């Protein structure tokens, strides 16, 4: 929701809602009590949304005010700023020019980002072949294309979500442990036996389905919540293949690799929605004030599964808190990233060193709570914790990753993690950025490299913590 005095320009989002509902501009103008010319100005971002019009739109389309937030625009502007800082380009446009480009031609901006990604992917390919090219940037190609698609869908897929919820209720999965109940479902419906195969782990395989032999082998030595998630994935593939395929067909993803990754993503989405059915989970989250540990125990799932599911609660008319969710390893590589807020992490560089995610690895298993302010002056509250299993032998090297879940500080009263925090004390708020390359803070003591688009002054008669000053052009 916009803060007091903040102007909301949401033309593209209004046009999108109108098109989804098959409504003409004149028809929507009449429903809102406006002239067609006034609505046309709003849809072309020549006029901002007033609070009254915003309320009418929410009532008419059954969405929350956050639907009209500028989170997508903020994320596009940050990505464009990172890209245009590449030495490939001769000059950095002003923030206003970037903002006008994003608001006026969002589709064209998205295509520009896709083109740049393809360029970086080509650099990686040539670099591997030994060509003299600049150092490649991580996270390009099909993987990012799928992430952008999921982000554009607000990390919510209604048909899959409702199908999983319906299966949960019809089979009464709440009457026993999730792994036990899902195993019984596979035996009763498909006559599939579930066996443990210790050799799978050495092959890097979690489960293997042999349809002809009606046998599902799962790796051993894992917690029951992992087994339950794998069984839910298998059920999705067996019984809801067409439901999982439809969003992928509509996605517009160009490559076969991207569509294959998206199909895996939909299988994972189904599994999470089956273990944590939408309405039951939404009510429980509210009742517990989003206490992640209590929700884990109540539904018999993992910390990561709870956090990821909270980031998907965007059913129109029944939205949960808009969270962002990020999964990263100790080197700062982002493994998953979704945001229902305006929060945006770096796409072509490293993460901010002041973020609480990096504290997690020094104290594995401990929950870290942080209030932070981004460069666009938005304040968030986030929790972070490492997840991973204990080694099974001296030679085992288990993977340790960190999960971050956050939301706007305006939702802090709805979170148990705000207990003991002085939300009014600005000293509690840590300034963070999207990564040094895109961060516009000129006074950060933790800066690793200069920001793009700034000049460098290293000839002054003083020496700071950072050996140069960034100069605004």
What's this model, at a glance?
The chain contains 18 helices and eleven strands.
Describe the structure.
The radius of gyration is 24 Å and the shape is globular. Among the domains are: 11-68, lambda repressor-like DNA-binding domains (434 Repressor (Amino-terminal Domain), Orthogonal Bundle), CATH 1.10.260; 137-275, Orthogonal Bundle (Arc Repressor Mutant, subunit A), CATH 1.10.10; 442-472, no CATH class. A hairpin with a 4-residue loop joins strand 2 (207-210) and strand 3. Helices cover 43% and strands 12% of the residues. The longest helix is centred in the N-terminal third of the chain and has 23 residues, at 106-128. Helix 13 (241-250) crosses helix 14 (256-275). The strands form 3 sheets. It has a 6-stranded mixed beta sheet. With 473 residues, the protein is of the alpha+beta class. The chain has helices spanning 11-20, 25-32, 36-43, 51-61, 71-84, 95-104, 106-128, 142-152, 158-171, 178-190, 199-202, 224-239, 241-250, 256-275, 278-287, 292-299, 303-310, 357-360; strands spanning 193-196, 207-210, 215-218, 324-329, 334-339, 368-373, 379-387, 401-408, 429-431, 455-457, 469-471. It is built from 18 helices and 11 strands. It comes from Gluconacetobacter tumulicola. Keywords: DNA-binding, Transcription, Transcription regulation. InterPro entries: Cro/C1-type_HTH (IPR001387), HTH_RamB (IPR026281), IrrE_HExxH (IPR010359), Lambda_DNA-bd_dom_sf (IPR010982), ScfR_C (IPR018653), TransReg_Diox_bact_type (IPR050807). One of its GO terms (cellular component) is cytosol. Residues 14-68 form the HTH cro/C1-type domain.
